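Supplementary Methods S3. Input chains for the assembly prediction are listed below.
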Amino acid sequence: MITYLGVHKSYGEHAALTDFTLEVQRGETLALIGPSGGGKTTVLKLANGLLAPSRGTVLLDARPIDEWDRQELRRAIGYVIQQVGLFPHWTVERNVGVLPTLEEWPPEKIAARVNELLTLVDLEPDRFKSRYPSQLSGGQAQRVGVARALALSPAMLLMDEPFGSLDPLIRAQLQTELLAILKTVEVTTILVTHDLTEAFRMGTRVAVLADGKLEQIGTPAELLSEPRSPYLKRLIKANLLQVQP
Amino acid sequence: MRPRVLFQLAIALALPLQGQTITIGSKPFTESYVLAELMAQLITSQTGIKVDRRFGMQGTFTSFSAITDGSIDIYPEYTGTGALAILKSTDPADQGLDSLRAKFKRLYGLTWLEPWGFNNSWAIVTKQAFAARHNLKTITDLAQVAGVRGAFTHEFMQRDDGYPGLIAAYGLRLAEARGIQHVLAYDALAADQIDVMDAYATDGEIARYNLVVLQDDRSFFPQYLATPLIRLQTLEQFPGLASILNRFAGQISSEQMQALNHEAALAGNDYAVVVQKFIHDRTAGELVSRVEPRSPLLRQTRRHLLLTGLAVLFATVLAVPLGIVMVGRPVLSRVVLGVTGVLQTIPSIAMLGFMIPLLGIGVKPAVVALFIYGLLPIVRNTYTGIDEIDPHLIEVAHGLGMDRWRRLIWLELPLAAPIIFAGIRTAAVIAVGTATLAAFIGAGGLGEPIVQGLSFNDPAMILSGAIPAALLAMVIDAVLGWVEKRIARQPVGPG
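Predicted structure tokens for the full assembly:
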């Protein structure tokens, strides 16, 4: 689905990503875990063209990202960030409908799609459609963010610590819901997180990224039974986890 | 409202193009208003020519620039000013009319008609009490007194035939010498805040305040014969005009002019009516002139709104796109903010003065000057408003594949709108205030009664322009403030 081939990315002197090679397979949810500044967000932004690699190639469906045009990428990839980034001067309905609007769908079709999406993320359309982002709780706002990203049924979903700023109970609930949603819509997902529980719970595979290098990748079970990455070892020790992979 | 404003602009721009109109200017002091009005009424009472009055223009520079570029056709000037301030010649021969006419024809395409007769030279005046205390009769006497405080018109302070020449000629040493608006100097003298001031020999106030003119015993001040200064082209276009304007040549004495000035400046008197009566009396009823109705408040207010409205509109049209382009271009932003900032520091009167050689007088240069002052607040607020938008929103917009145009229209402009609008509001309020000065370059508006009131030392008239201008600024501020709030209104708190 998406392939990173020997990718380097540096900002001036600082190397954010070094010789990064990874293939994300169709239909999987790849959880990217690692310390802050380890390069996780860079990996995401290389996928949707917000960043270009300094060296190496990123391929989406075997085609380099820079050969895709903006509209194609918009259709192919949904994007969710921790800060949500809902447009504060627009209602929930307009926010969720922004991609179909950019695609110039007819208004009735957009309205129907917005209803469908809000229902999918468990927000009652009639109650929430006409609200503004400032009238939503943190959890509600991020559900709207997810609905917005899924509007064009993208093949790929990029999520950058989507639940990072939510309190633990709501986070757990949203994780459960997101798992269900991902199963329903069958979207390939890269989920960036620094929370080991979340990574093991959501990821079909988990990749550990530290200091711009891919330290280890595997299923949660593999990683738990055989942690080789120094960062992962420390993390497991610190968490004293009970995880059901 | 908008179509009407545009319509008025069209009229204002088309006016100078009409053939059968003579435009008369004056400087901002009583005598200049009276003489200009005298010429206007002589023309309208004997011909079908229309007269466009552009009275109260700021000083010799403005009036002279206006006549040389054809913005006005005639204004009353003084021979001494012509030689010393305009030709910048200290040669006494140049003060004669023959020499002045020859040089003005060759250099400027202008000529001097016949002088009215009186010599309105500068004079140094003081109160009777001060003169008696120090036994003053002449300026030489004044040079013997220590600690004298003086205040003089700004023009007098600067001209070689004014203050600098005077102190050199008499060895005068004053304890202080300040620049002041002429009519205010009389108040300062009356209140004993100053001891001496400059005056025009025909000032009505000399009689009114019972002041002493110190004799110019070294004949330092040149002759200042009041004379119509006119474009040669205008004389060609209207062949009989010279004789019409020379009607009172050599017939007005200094005392008569003093009386006329005094009467014109009396509270409650309309100088135009005083002039009308003068013409009627001096021609034994032969000439009956009409007095143009005063420009009513409504028209002045509309003109004021036109000036500020156009200036703010043009400033917005330029500054908003400029502010948008500046985002993400630090070098360009520094240059633009620097340049507009420097423009902002130019004093309004100077800015209006700069406009005259480029654009003449009237609405056009006033709008351009006000437009320049409007740039900084709008450009700065547009830039800041967009620059300070939450970067995550912009990142998401990129992630959604919005192009530059969509980001601008859907996100940046709406989100920055309250701040941009606050800048426009600031610009509008500044423009309403500054536009009162536009009257100095013949642009009209609520500054007209202010300038005239200053020239006639008539507080009521000053207030008749100043109060509406202040109210207008407050109303515009309130209205735009209300609009700004509506733009900024976004629902807050959980629903």
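The beta strands of chain A are 2-11, 14-24, 29-33, 55-60, 63-64, 77-81, 156-160, 188-193, 205-210, 213-218. DSSP finds eleven helices and ten strands in chain A.
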